[in-house]
TrEMBL record:
It comes from Rhodococcus pseudokoreensis. This is Uncharacterized protein. The chain crosses the membrane at residues 43-66, 73-97. The keyword Transmembrane helix applies. Keywords: Membrane, Transmembrane, Transmembrane helix.
């Protein structure tokens, strides 16, 4: 149960920190030359990635809590949630880098 709780807490922290960092990146995207940068594509990549990360984290947390309540093994679901959340955030960062040409 401790591993499950820790994995879900870390997944929420990863999603939260990624959201704050992503919005700061978008906030300070003042100069975006059109030939090498697309602010719209950067915005789309970040928003989609954060939405997926949030959805994965909420659904994984709910399934983990349900499995804990039924006294079944929950840590694989929680660890999978953490991995998927981190992967979604990493893909969003890669999309941002690709769109801005940094």
């Amino acid at each position: 149960m401790a591993v499950s709780a820790a994995a879900i807490v870390v997944a929420v922290a990863v999603a939260s920190i990624s959201a704050v960092a992503a919005f700061f990146w978008l906030l300070f995207l003042d100069y975006c030359p059109p030939e090498t940068c697309s602010a719209e594509n950067a915005w789309i990549a970040v928003c989609v990635a954060l939405a997926v990360a949030a959805l994965v984290t909420v659904m994984g947390g709910a399934v983990t809590i349900a499995r804990i309540a039924r006294h079944t093994v929950a840590w694989p679901v929680a660890c999978g949630t953490l991995v998927l959340c981190a992967a979604a955030c990493a893909i969003g960062f890669a999309g941002y880098v690709s769109a801005t040409g940094i």
